[in-house]
C-alpha cells in the first residue's frame, strides 16, 4: 500500500471505505494495530519533538485527519486520495462493532462525558460490548492497562488529546491485540 511522506510523516494514501475494510480485517484477525489520525497540529508538534515523531512512525497507519494535510499533500504534488477523520472512523467502527458483536474499551475525557458515552453507546450501538472505561485524567496508568489486559477488548479508543493519547498507546499497546486509536475530542463530540 502506498504511503505519502509529508514533513517526514508517512501518511497512508487510502480512501475511507478501503481503510475501514482493512481495519475490520485486522480486528477480526486480532492483529495489534496502532492508528494515528494526524491533523496539522500533530504534524507541527512532531517537527519539534523527536520522540513524538518516532512514536508516530512506529504506528501501523497514519491517516490524514484535517483538510490542511490534504491541501498540503496537493501542494507538494503528492495528492492523498481522501481525508480520513478520526471521528468518522470512530463512529463507523462503533457501528460495525455493534453489528459484529465486538468489544471496545474507552479511555479519555471527563468523568461526566465518559458516563454519557456509556449511555450513548448502549443506546446507539447495542451489539457492542463496553469492555471498560476510564476518564482521561490520570497520573498512573497501571490500573487502566491491567484492566485492558484483563478484558482483552477488540478496540481501544483513547481520547485524551495529543501527544498524551499516542504516548499512551505506544507504551501500552502490548496489553491487548486490539485496534488502538487516538481520537482527540471525539468522546465530547459523540455525547455533545
Ligand atoms: N483530555 C483528557 N485528558 C487530559 C487532557 C484532555 O482526557 O489530560 C480530553 C479532553 O477532555 C477532551 C480531549 O481530551 O475530551 C481533547 O480534545 P481536543 O479536541 O483538544 O484534542 P486534540 O485536538 O488536542 O488532540
UniProtKB/TrEMBL annotation:
Annotated GO molecular function terms are: N-acetylglucosaminyldiphosphoundecaprenol N-acetyl-beta-D-mannosaminyltransferase activity
The EC number on file is 2.4.1.187
Q: Which domain of life is it from?
A: Bacteria
* Broad enzyme group: transferase
| Record keyword Transcription present | no
Which keywords has UniProt assigned to this entry?
Cell wall biogenesis/degradation, Glycosyltransferase, Teichoic acid biosynthesis, Transferase
Reactions this protein catalyses: UDP-N-acetyl-alpha-D-mannosamine + N-acetyl-alpha-D-glucosaminyl-di-trans,octa-cis-undecaprenyl diphosphate = N-acetyl-beta-D-mannosaminyl-(1->4)-N-acetyl-alpha-D-glucosaminyl di-trans,octa-cis-undecaprenyl diphosphate + UDP + H(+)
| Family the UniProt entry places it in | Belongs to the glycosyltransferase 26 family. TagA/TarA subfamily.
According to its UniProt entry, the function of this protein is described as:
Catalyzes the conversion of GlcNAc-PP-undecaprenol into ManNAc-GlcNAc-PP-undecaprenol, the first committed lipid intermediate in the de novo synthesis of teichoic acid.
Q: What is this protein called?
A: N-acetylglucosaminyldiphosphoundecaprenol N-acetyl-beta-D-mannosaminyltransferase
